[in-house]
Design brief:
Elements lengths: L15 E5 L6 H9 L7 H6 L6 E6 L5 E6 L7 H8 L4 E7 L6 H12 L5 E6 L7 H15 L9 E3 L8 H13 L11 E3 L2 E5 L3 E7 L5 E2 L3 E5 L3 E10 L2 E3 L1 E2 L4 E6 L12 E4 L6 E10 L7 E2 L3 E6 L2 E10 L3 E2 L4 E12 L6 E5 L6 E9 L10 H12 L2 H10 L8 H8 L3 H13 L3 E3 L5 E3 H21 L6 E2 H8 L5 H13 L3 E4 L2 E4 L8 H17 L6 H4 L5 H17 L2 E3 L5 E3 H18 L4 H8 L3 H13 L3 E4 L2 E4 L2
Parallel strand pairs: 1-3, 1-4, 4-5, 5-6
Antiparallel strand pairs: 2-3, 7-16, 8-9, 9-15, 10-14, 11-12, 11-16, 12-13, 12-15, 17-22, 17-24, 18-21, 19-20, 19-23, 20-22, 23-24, 25-26, 27-29, 28-29, 30-31, 32-33
Helix pairs in contact: 3-4, 8-9, 8-10, 14-16, 18-19
Length: about 650
């Protein structure tokens, strides 16, 4: 295994240096002079004397830190490889040949670095030995300074070097060390992502993938996933620059040996990541722009080559609120892809045309799993503003509001919206306290707008049912869920119904739900059965028949009438439901409570068998009574028995 990065045990000083510059401006020779490593590994590269595929080397900085160098092709035919290699770059090493000066790919590579958010650079004025004189070097240096002005956070140093004679190499090494020290540390997140830029089979190991680790840590022995194919991957070994390591950190060139997948299962541009943490998508919400000096424009409806992480995809650009962006302009857009990708908020990308093959623009991902957007909608532009500039609580609210009818858990919403899991619940609770969100449970929240719409819809459905069937006790909860909130699981729907019941909007009786303002009417047949039923339960005492044995009817209509009468007795309080099997008359229920109190006072915790014997009932009824006392808060468990709640 090879082709990885520094083997430090911490993420704080891992730096990726990416070369950039025109073909034949000495990038590969410069890397060889700096590191002693030849990055051109292909026979064709050696024969033609140009870099075709990205190459990799390690550079030991003066403080002992190992930086990874990604050597990219300079030829215009291989700019797509350069765009893939520049992803994850912390520090650019821009090469300009002293005898040539600035050339077309110098300009395009610089624009790609800007679009990918590379904020630090060192310029190497290569082939110092071929420059005519110092005046020429000054002229080229001025040209380079003008070119890079405003691209990076600070003006990059320009170091004159010769890979042939070794002049300036140590000065360049020192400049890279200083610039690397200014690079911010890579944050370590729970989710890890390794964009795959190489995949090969190695004898004795099997399938190996390599890339620059963006987020999280990769550990040997873990189970991961190859996206977007959703293939389970078992990580057998991890290496950093040919050295086995237990853990690789963000910012390191990393090689991972995968145990259960073949080379053919994985392609360049795939992402090895935490299982279940990412979602393949055919759409991306983005902010996009065109460079100030670009002669090209981005047009809505046009197809471009999307360079994202280490991958390339065909993507249709749908601008929102504009038809075209020209030099210096930015806007919001949705990218619609022909094949899936995985992306997270903050990922940078480049857009290139197929013909002519030039870089046109690029930008930043705002949402890696968005909904389909309609153009020229003011409210849509508002959503994008929140996604780009909103506070964390505002983004939590948007995540809940944006997907009405999905009823996703907070964890699912956090993953989709790329929110901070530690902050999301606290923010959701605060928003619920302000009435912006409605808490159904610890895992589910509704936006107040959706909650109000659901209540309105539920009232309409129940009113219609009560009008059509005035004798019915209500609508079964499962049926009401399918009518009002079909996208919700029954558990989520029950939480919603419980919330409405506590707010006195509905009443839940048995398995039926009705509006609190409605009372089922009793017809003659029901009333006749109601009287008989009440009398029967008085006579049953504490040895009732099973409810199903009391309710049989000769047909569906008679069964409905009898159920309505039964529910009416429960509503009136004449009958007390113990469980799904038994009811008892209120008189006998109260007598059983009195017996329980007396027995507990005389003997301590009441056991099921003793209670049965005193009541003269069956064990099932005695147990159902004690459990009913518990549910109502009248009794609590004490060892094997129950005692009155103080």
């Amino acid at each position: 295994m090879s082709d990885s990065g520094p083997g430090s045990s911490s993420s704080s000083r891992n730096v990726v240096i990416g070369t950039a510059g025109h073909v034949d401006h000495g990038k590969t020779s410069l890397v060889l002079a700096l590191t002693g490593m030849e990055t051109d590994r292909l026979a064709e590269e050696k024969r033609r004397g140009i870099t075709i595929e990205n190459g990799y080397a390690r550079l030991k900085l003066p403080d002992g830190t190992l930086a990874s160098i990604v050597d990219v092709p300079g030829h215009e035919r291989f700019v797509r490889h350069m765009a893939a290699g520049a992803g994850g770059t912390d520090l650019a090493l821009l090469t300009v040949a002293a005898d040539d000066g600035v050339m077309p790919q110098t300009v395009e590579h610089l624009e790609i670095l800007r679009l990918l958010g590379v904020r630090r650079a060192v310029v190497a004025l290569t082939k110092r030995d071929l420059a005519p004189d110092d005046d020429w070097l000054e002229l080229v240096g001025t040209e380079v300074r003008d070119l890079v002005a405003g691209v990076f956070e600070t003006e990059p140093p320009i170091i004159r070097v010769s890979s042939l004679t070794g002049e300036g190499i140590e000065d360049l090494r020192a400049a890279l060390f200083q610039a690397a020290a200014d690079c911010p540390p890579h944050p370590v997140q729970n989710v890890f992502r390794l964009p795959v830029d190489r995949v090969f089979t190695m004898a004795g190991f099997g399938t190996v993938v390599t890339g620059t680790l963006l987020d999280g840590v990769v550990e040997a022995g873990r189970t991961a996933c190859v996206y977007p194919g959703m293939l389970e991957a078992r990580i057998r070994q991890v290496q950093v620059h040919n050295s086995p390591t237990r853990t690789a950190w963000p910012g390191q060139r990393t090689a991972v040996n995968i145990a259960n997948l073949k080379k053919e299962d994985i392609g360049r541009g795939d992402v090895l990541g935490t299982a279940g943490a990412l979602s393949p998508t055919l759409m991306l919400d983005v902010t996009v722009g065109v460079g100030e000096k670009s002669p090209h424009s981005l047009k809505t409806g046009r197809e471009y080559h999307l360079h994202l992480l280490a991958g390339e995809r065909a993507a249709k650009l749908v601008l929102l609120g504009a038809d075209e962006l020209v030099g210096g302009q930015t806007g919001y857009a949705q990218l619609r892809l022909k094949s899936p990708v995985v992306a997270r908020r903050g990922d940078r990308f480049v857009l290139r045309m197929a013909s002519p093959a030039v870089t046109v623009g690029g930008g930043e991902v705002l949402d890696g799993t968005p909904l389909k957007r309609k153009r020229a909608k003011t409210e849509v532009l508002g959503l994008f503003e929140i996604k780009r500039k909103g506070t964390h609580p505002e983004r939590v609210e948007l995540a809940v509001r944006e997907r009405p009818g999905a009823f996703q858990s907070l964890g699912e919403l956090v993953r989709r919206a790329d929110l901070d899991p530690a902050k999301a619940r606290a923010d959701a609770d605060k928003l619920a306290g302000r009435g912006v969100l409605v808490s159904l449970s610890r895992d589910h929240y509704l936006h107040r707008t959706e909650y109000d719409n659901l209540v309105k819809k539920l009232r309409l459905r129940l009113n219609d049912h009560h009008r059509r069937e005035p004798h019915s006790p209500g609508v079964a909860s499962g049926q009401l869920r399918s009518l009002v909130m079909p996208g919700a699981r029954q558990q989520v729907a029950d939480s919603f119904f419980d919330l409405l019941a506590s707010a006195k909007i509905i009443v839940r009786e048995e398995a039926a739900i009705r509006l609190a303002s409605f009372s089922p009417k009793i017809n003659e047949a029901e009333n006749e059965f109601l009287l008989k039923l009440e009398k029967s339960y008085r006579e049953f005492g504490l040895n009732p028949l099973a409810t199903s044995a009391v309710l049989p009817g000769e047909g569906p209509a008679q069964q409905r009438e009898r159920k309505a009468a039964f529910a009416a007795l429960v509503r009136r309080g004449d009958l007390v439901p113990l469980d799904e099997l038994y009811h008892v008359h209120r008189l006998h229920y109260d007598q059983a409570k009195a017996t329980f109190l007396r027995l507990a006072g005389d003997e301590g915790p009441v056991m099921v068998g003793r209670f049965r014997d005193i009541l003269g009932s069956s064990r099932k009824v005695a147990l159902a009574l004690l459990e009913s006392f518990e549910r109502s808060g009248f009794a609590v468990k004490n060892g094997e028995g129950r005692i009155p709640r103080r």
